[in-house]
Amino acid sequence: MKTLIVLRHAKAEHTPGVLDFERGLTNRGQRNAREAGELIGRLEPDLILSSSSKRTRQTAELLGLPAPLELERDIYEAYADELLVLLRQVGPDVGTLVLVGHNPSVHELVIGLTGHQVETFPPGAYAVIELPGPWAEVDSGTGTLVDTHRP
C-alpha cells in the first residue's frame, strides 16, 4: 500500500510585472503551508516531489518535513496524465509521497485517481490517497480518497 498526498501550493502573490513562475507566497500562504506541514507530518512522508516554481518550492520548504525534497520543473505546466507518468517513476522504497503542484492538474489528478468529485481545491488544499500497489502501477481509478484538507 502506498500513500500519496496531493498538495496545491499555498496562496501566492499577484504582483504586476512578476513572471508567474517567480510568484512567491503571501503571508497567509506561508502560515497555511506551515499548518499543512503539521498535519501532513503525522503521515511521515518519505519524499516530497515539488514543482520548481517559487510558490510551490516555498510551500514544500515551509511544510518543515524531514523528508527529502526533489524539485521537478515538469510539474509546473503538467496535465494530470503527465503527473501520473511522474508518479510511476517514483522509487519502490517510497511509501508516502507528497506531490506539490498547481491547479488545475493537481485537482484533476485527485479526481482521476479516486473517481471522487472533490468540489474545490483552493490554494493550500491537499488530498490523501491510498494506492493499492507499487508506484509503477498507479493509474486512473486505482486510488481511494482517505482525507482532504482546505486551509
TrEMBL record:
<protein>
    <submittedName>
        <fullName>Phosphohistidine phosphatase</fullName>
    </submittedName>
</protein>
<dbReference type="InterPro" id="IPR029033">
    <property type="entry name" value="His_PPase_superfam"/>
</dbReference>
<dbReference type="Pfam" id="PF00300">
    <property type="entry name" value="His_Phos_1"/>
</dbReference>
<dbReference type="InterPro" id="IPR013078">
    <property type="entry name" value="His_Pase_superF_clade-1"/>
</dbReference>
